[in-house]
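Build the 3D complex.
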Amino acid sequence: MRVKSYVPLLKLAPILAWFAALFLITKDPVRFFIDLASFYSFYLMLSISLNLEYGCTGIPNFGKVMFFAGGAFVTGALTARLIAPLAGVSGMFLAHYKLYNVIVGTQVSAFFSHRVDVAMATFVLMLVLAAAVGAALGWAASYPAIRLREDYLAMTLIVTGELLRIIARNYDPLICGTIGVSVPDPFYWLSGLPHDLLRTSIMLAIAFSTWALVDALAKSPFGRMIRAIRENELAAESFGKDVIKVRMKVLMVGSAIAGVAGALYAFYSGTVQADDFMPIKTFVVWVMVILGGAGNNKGAALGALTYLALDRTIVLLKGYVSAPFDINNLSYVALGVALILVLMYKPEGLIPEKPFISGTSRRRSRTSDQENP
Amino acid sequence: MKTMLTFEVFLDSLIFSNLITLMAIGLTLTYLTLKIPNFAHGDMATVGAYVVLTISRTFSLNPYLSFPLAFLTAGALSLLSYLLVYRPLSRRNANIVVLMVASIALEIIIRSSLHVYADIMSSVQKTYYRGLTYYAIKGFKEEPLRLGPHKVPVVTLTSTLTAIGITVALYLFLTRTKFGIAMRASIENPNLASTLGINVNKVYAASWFIAGGLAGLSGAFLPFRIPTSPELGWELLLKTFAASTLGGLESIFGAVIGGYAIGFAEIMGISMLSSPPFNLSTSYRPAIPIVVLIATLLIVPKGLTSIDVGKLVRRRGKSEG
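Done.
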C-alpha cells in the first residue's frame, strides 16, 4: 500500500532528469528556471481545469484557448486604462490609446513602483475580473450546444474561440487590434532577480492552490456526481441530477480557472496579442491531460510537466540547430503522433485514474466485510 | 446602394459556395460513417491545393491537368487516416470524444507537415510556397469569358460544373448502383447490413476515400481565388462545419443546401455589411459563418433538412381554416 503511493514520484524521475540536463546546457540557468516555473503555472492551471471538464465530467472542451484568451484580453484591456487616471496619465494618450498604449503602460508601471498597495489591489482585482469573464464566456459559449451531443459542443466551442480571436483582432478598442496592447507590471516596485522570484512564486502559489481546490472539488459529493454523469448520463438523470445544469457549472468553473491563467499570462508577458490565442493552444492542453492520464489531477500535472520538457527543449534547440524550416512545426507533428499513440496503446495515460473511495463508504464497506467474512 | 450586390459579388459567392459545398459533402460523408466531425477534413483540401501547385510549379503545367491527382492524393490520405487511426480506435470502443481528439491530432500533424513542406520546397525551388495563386505560375494565363458587359472568370464555370456534376453523380451513385445502396444501408444500420452480406468495412473505407478526394478537389480550386497557405484548410473547415450543421450533419443533400447558404451568406453578407450604413471592416468576414452556426444550433439544432415543410404548411392551413 505504501509503495504504491510512490509510483507517481518514480514516473517524475525521468522528466526531472531531463530538466536537469537542460538546466546544465542552458546559458542562463536562473532565467531558465524562472521561465520554466512561470510557464508551468499557466499550463498547470489549464490542464487541471481541462481535467475537471473532460477527465472528470466528460465535456469535450475544444475551446479552452477562448477562456484563456478571455482572461488575458480583459487584463490587457483594463489594467492600464483603470489606473491611468490615478497615475496622472495625460488624457490625450488615453484618447488615442491604440497609438500610445505602450506609453500609458510604462507610465502606469512607473506609478506602481511607488504605490505597492494600488499595484497589488489591481493585480487581485484583475484576477477576479478574469475569472468572472472566463465563467461568463463559459456560460455563453456552451449555451447553444450543451443540450446537444458532444460533437456539436466540441464544434461550437472551437468555432466560438476563433470568433473571439477575430473580434479581438479587428475591434481596436479592446486590445488595440493587430498591434496588441501593453500590460503594466504590478511588481514594478521590485527589480532584478527579487522581482522575477516574487512574481513567479506568486504565480506558482496560485496554480497550486487551484490544484488543491479542484482536488477538493473532485473528492466532494459534487465530484462523485460529475463522475456519475461521465459514466452514464441517463442513470445520473434518473437519479434526479440535472445533467445539463451540472455540465454548465463545471464548464464555468473550468473556464474561470482558465481566465485566471490568462490574466497571469498577460501580466507575465507584459503584452497581449490576439493571434497568440490560436486553437493550437487548446490542442496542447489536451495533449497534457491525455498524456498524463485523464480523470486524475496528478496525471494532468505530470502531463503539463512532460509537455514543458519538450517545449523548452525545442526553444533551446532553436539556438543551436539551424534547419530550413521552423522546428516548432516538427514538434507539433511529434506531439500529434504521440497523442495518437497514447490514445491507441495507453488510453489511461501515464498515471491512470484511481477509483476514489470516500471515508464514509470505506468505513461502511469495512463493517460489511466484518459482517460477512 | 447599387454597389452592394453587383454581378461580380454574385460570381464571387458562387465560386466560394461551390468549394464549401464540395467540402461539406465530404465532411457529411465521414460524419455519417463514424458519427464524428472530422477535424482533419479541411487539411485534405490544403493537400489537394499543394499537390496541384507543386506539379504546376515544377513542370509549368496547366493546373487543371493535375486535378485528378489532387483527388487521388487527398482521398488516399483520408483513407489511410481511416484505416490507421479511426478504425483501430473505434474497434477499441473509443468514445466519440477520443475519436475527435484523434482527428484534431491528425489535423495538427498534416497542417504542421505542410508548413515544413512549404518551407523546404521554397528553399529548394527558390520561390515562395505561401501566398501563391495559380496566376503567379509562369506560362499560365486564363482569359476571362465575356458575358455581355461582364467578365466571368473561367473558374466560376469549372467550379460550378464540378459541384453540380459531383452532386448529380453522387445522387446516381447512392440511389442507382449496388455499391451506393450498400453504402446507404451500412450507414443506416451497420449490423443489419453486415448480416445481409455487405462488407461494411469496405463500404466505410470507400466513403472515406471519396470524402477526402472531394475535399482535395475543392482544395485544388482554391489557389484560383485565394493565396495558398498551409492554414487554408483549417480556415475553410470552420465554414464547412457551419455548412454541414446548417444542412443537418446527416444529410448529403442538406450539405449541398448548407454549402450554398453559407457561401452566399458570407460573401454577400460582408459586401453588404462593409458598405454604408454599416461600414464594418471586411476582416470580420470569417465571423459570418460562425454566427450562422450558432444561430442554427439555437433555432434548428438538427439543421434545415429536419424542418418538415409539409407539416408547417398543414398547420398553417388548419389555423386559417
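The mean pLDDT of chain B is 85.
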